[in-house]
Specification:
Order of helices and strands: EEEHEHEHEEHHHHHHH
Distance between the termini: 31 Å
Oligomer: single chain
Mean pLDDT: 89
Number of strands: 7
Length: 238
Amino acid sequence: MDVKFLYNLYPKSVFGLLVKEDSAYQTPADLKGQVIGVGTADGAEVSFTRAILTEAGMTEGADYSFLPVGDGGTAAVAFLRDEVAAYAGAVSDAAILAARGLTLREITPEAFLGFFGNGIAMLESQMQAMPELAPAFGRALVRGTRFASDPANKEKALAHCAAGNPQEGEQDYAASLYDGVVNRMTPTEAFIGKGYGYQPPEHWQAIHDSAVASGALSEPIEDLASVYTNEFVEGWNS
């Protein structure tokens, strides 16, 4: 498809590899021989975690296995019953588990935090037909992110979230989710100067190479730069 990735919404990975706070596991390599909980059997967290464990020299089926345990409460039960040693989930899952009284610790390697999460993509044909859309939409995103990232605006931001998404915005874990989301949407020190929405080429290359190594991509993409662009970033942040 003629699709292009425009805006890096979560410059830090939306997913994390989580263990109990008091567990002995300190690195992904410590999980050899263990069961890793995931939300679904084919979710994005599976390929994300598979890449981490491949980097640690482990092979699925031989050195570890995945167990779909669902999200939130059902994942907490899997931890409490010791059915899983770790859980690969999104920042929202971590917030729900914290609200359920389960304190977790992240062991995601620093390099994989650059495996950025969700973002904004558009059809190139739409970009050509409506050239004003991407610049305007990105400016709105940056403005909203700056507002929500200010601690003084937390309650206002939560109220807006509750109006837009009552199912999550009004839950008891909303405040914890807010903190996690703001952290993940804030660029690392290395790239904060580039502004919101920026996509580091080296992070794209790392994601691509891990996807090829793990089998998520059957073959390398010939021109990786063709699938994303930073051409609007400076204008969004000005």
